[in-house]
Prior knowledge:
By secondary structure, the chain is of the alpha/beta class. The chain has two domains: about 1-35; about 40-220, 3-Layer(aba) Sandwich (Rossmann fold), CATH 3.40.50.150. It has helices at about 1-35, 40-50, 65-70, 85-95, 115, 135-150, 170-175, 180-185; strands spanning about 55-60, 75-80, 105, 120-125, 150-160, 190-205, 210-220. A seven-stranded mixed sheet has the order 3-2-1-4-5-7-6. The longest helix has about 35 residues, at about 1-35. The termini are far apart.
Amino acid sequence: MKINKLFVVILVIFLFFTGFALLKRGKWEKYYKNKLDQPPRQIIVDALQLFQTSGQAIDLGCGVGNEAFFLLNHGWHVWAVDSESKAIQLIQNRMDTNAIGKVTAVVANFAEDSTWETLPTVDFIYAAYALPFCKKEQFGKAWAQIKNHLVVNGRFAGHFFGLNYRGFSSKEMEEMTFLKREDVLELLQGFEIEYFQEREEDGLSGTGKSIHSHVFEVIARKKER
């Protein structure tokens, strides 16, 4: 009888985590479907105009690869990093570039130090709506790795979430990082800020959910020490 009870407990735990994983996977697949074939975000278009020549770039949280392929088509070599294997599969199956050989697709969590051991020092690091999904205890290390993997005069472009962002459950928010304006500016010490915009508005998430967005959008150039 004790064995049966133990089996039931294990089964319930297994079903809970399996269901959670499927729900998470379904959320990301819906997001990818909505984003596929959309034009690149304006921030990466603006950032590339600041470079005199193409070089090497890392796209953190690359998703379906719209921005990675924008970089490829402008002569860049790109390391496309995402923790979701589905995103990497989509990138590897895309045919809308003649420079597919210049993309290195990596299934990895960029919040982990081991991921950065496989990545080069580059001219440009792009992180669109990716860094906020780092846990608080991982965020500082991830940002330090970004700074260390940029050459002098290299650029960072990306987004940070503000404290007023609403659209995630309490449990989800515990696994994320939200910042004040002063926090973002402190992170950018050692950089020349070339573009900084704080946006706060109601809208829809990538999966069609109603949200109140509070985002800091940044382009910054790494200065010499």
